Amino acid sequence: MERIQSAIAKARAERARRASDVDGAPAVSATNADAWTTLTEVVPDPDHLRRNRIVTPDGGEAAIPFDLLRTRLLRAMIGHGWRRVAIVSPDAGSGKTTLCANLAYSLARQTDTRTVIAEMDMRRPALGAMLGVGSNVQFAEVLKGDGALTDHLLRHGTNLCLALNHAPVSNPSELLQGPNAPRVLDRMEKLLEPDIMLFDMPPLLRSDDTLAFLDKVDCALLIAEAEVTTRQQIDLCEQELARHSTVLGIVLNKLRHPAPAHGYGS
Ligand SMILES: Nc1ncnc2c1ncn2[C@@H]1O[C@H](COP(=O)(O)OP(=O)(O)OP(=O)(O)O)[C@@H](O)[C@H]1O
Ligand SMILES: [Mg+2]
User: Does any domain span residue 2?
Assistant: First the structure.
């Protein structure tokens, strides 16, 4: 854990150094705490989270697989100097949104790590409902250029920012590849200085929405559903992803008989 924290500190220092090289002026503060405090705070109901399989906010045995994934992901991303990761799957229902939320809360337990989780499934937004928050925000408005960024971002605690939509939009693909999307993401990065940004994507093989967005992320984590996702679907997705981004890894989700944790939990 200490090694990850020192790697995060080093990555921040390196980013600050690069920013000051580019601007010719001192970089912004390492902690843009003021920006975070202006975001509306939400406190999801723990029972609601548990009912929706969000098991990481308090740690414990159920959180272990997500904590392992968190650490591997962070290590790989910091190693490459990356911040943005898309969570993708070939088809619907493989558990992307659930995994993304669990990862976000697992990351949020590391109080020195700043995390953004953003819903990019604009056709069937589900993250807000899964968390039981966000009925009054529509991040898509910011992507359209019609809403102020900080009006549509929420925060949980001091280090987890949520970009959610309460309703679907009619032109998701155009929005995701429109000129505003990269600007909005850059502004979010500058304002919040996150260590990692998780993007919950729609199924890759159902529309061109995910493809339209991939050039804005550093890498992708591919989620396969045990006994459902086929080898051909994985191959096809890997090829598509490799054309536009880097596949960081594949997670086999919804295993009916996962390996036991051997009592190392809690
Ligand atoms: N590891 C898991 N084990 C069992 N069920 C799971 C697991 N992860 C998610 N689920 C369940 O699978 C269903 C689909 O999950 P989720 O909405 O996260 O998938 P998704 O990939 O985001 O779907 P979509 O492609 O429609 O956005 C939900 O009912 C969720 O509770
Ligand atoms: Mg989803």
Answer: no
Q: Is residue 172 part of a domain?
A: yes
Q: Please tell me the distance from the alpha carbon of residue 226 to that of residue 220, in angstroms, as a whole number.
A: 19
C-alpha closest to that of 56 among 131, 163, 135: 131
With a cut of 80, say whether residue 31 has pLDDT above it. Answer: no
- Residue 264: pLDDT band with limits 50, 70, 90: low
Task: Return residues with CB closer than 5 A to ligand 2 (ion).
Answer: 96-97, 126
CA 14 to ligand 2 centroid distance, Å: 34
pTM comes to 0.92
Residue nearest to atom 16 of ligand 1 (CA): 95
The finding on whether 121 has its CB within 6 A of some atom of ligand 1 is yes
Question: Does a structural domain hold residue 57?
Answer: yes
Length of the chain: 266
Evaluate whether residue 157 is within a structural domain: yes
Q: Work out the pLDDT band at 26, boundaries 50, 70, 90.
A: very low
Residue 30's pLDDT band (cuts 50, 70, 90) = very low
- Measured from the alpha carbon of residue 99, the closest ligand is 1
Count: domains in the chain: 1
- What's the rounded Cα separation, in Å, for the pair 222 and 140? 24
Beta strands in the chain (DSSP E): 40-41, 84-88, 115-119, 153-156, 160-163, 196-200, 219-225, 247-253
Cα(59) to ligand 2 centroid in Å equals 23
CATH code of the domain covering residue 171: 3.40.50.300
138 lines ligand 1 (CB under 6 A): no
Which of 87, 97, 253 should be mutated for ligand 1, with most atoms under 8 A from CB? Answer: 97
Instruction: Name the residue range of residue 182's domain.
Output: 31-253
